[in-house]
Design goal:
This protein is of the alpha+beta class. About 25% of the residues lie in helices and about 40% in strands. The protein has one domain: Cyclic phosphodiesterase (Cyclic Phosphodiesterase, Chain: A, Alpha-Beta Complex), CATH 3.90.1140.10. It has four helices and eleven strands.
Length: about 190
């Protein structure tokens, strides 16, 4: 099964992100917006794993949840991965709650290393599916296949504040099912923070 560990958004924050996506539409070309029900902050993408590993993974995530306290997130400012010259992803950054999110991701990484045997890179940093560091963000759009992406400077210069905050009191083990009409995400485990 194809899985990832994530913080999911509540209904209010999904509506806020939808509002920003709608406002950005006129300033961006060649981007497919992430549907509101799929919006999440990825703590760790694992890809394809054996179903037999799920109980051990869930047990480790429960231990992590009991060691971490609930916290509040807020979102603002946009960015591009990997670069403005070759944009593939549009994201909104985490403003409040960055350190708490990084700490949670670090604990998740360590547990996955123990369970799945992820090796350290030569630099001594843990592998994160090709990334060296966790960068807290919310992906809101991806480049369409075989289309040129154009993003106006105005779209990136604006702060794009989300009204309100997100209370993070849990995180999830999510299954990603790929279909011809796009991915479907299904919860395979919910872990309550203390």
């Amino acid at each position: 099964m194809r899985v990832f560990i994530a913080v999911n958004l509540d209904q209010h924050m999904r509506k806020e992100i939808e509002r920003i996506q709608l406002e950005m539409e006129s300033k961006v070309q060649g981007i497919r917006w992430v549907r509101s029900e799929l919006l999440h902050i990825t703590l760790r993408f694992l890809g394809e794993i054996d179903r037999a590993v799920i109980p051990a993974l869930s047990g480790a995530m429960n231990v992590i949840a009991h060691k971490n306290t609930s916290f509040t997130l807020s979102f603002s400012r946009t960015g591009i991965f990997p670069s403005l010259k070759k944009p593939r992803v549009i994201w909104i950054g985490v403003e409040k709650g960055v350190e708490e999110l990084k700490g949670l991701a670090m604990h998740v990484d360590r547990a996955i290393e123990e369970i799945l045997g992820v090796k350290e890179e030569k630099s001594g940093q843990k592998k994160r599916q090709g990334k060296e560091k966790f960068k807290p963000h919310l992906t809101i759009g991806r480049a369409k296949i075989n289309e040129t992406v154009h993003i106006s400077q105005d779209a990136l210069a604006r702060k794009w504040l989300c009204a309100g905050t997100l209370n993070v009191d849990s995180f999830y083990l999510m299954e990603s099912i790929i279909t011809s009409s796009g991915p479907i995400y299904r919860s395979a485990g919910k872990f309550l923070l203390k």
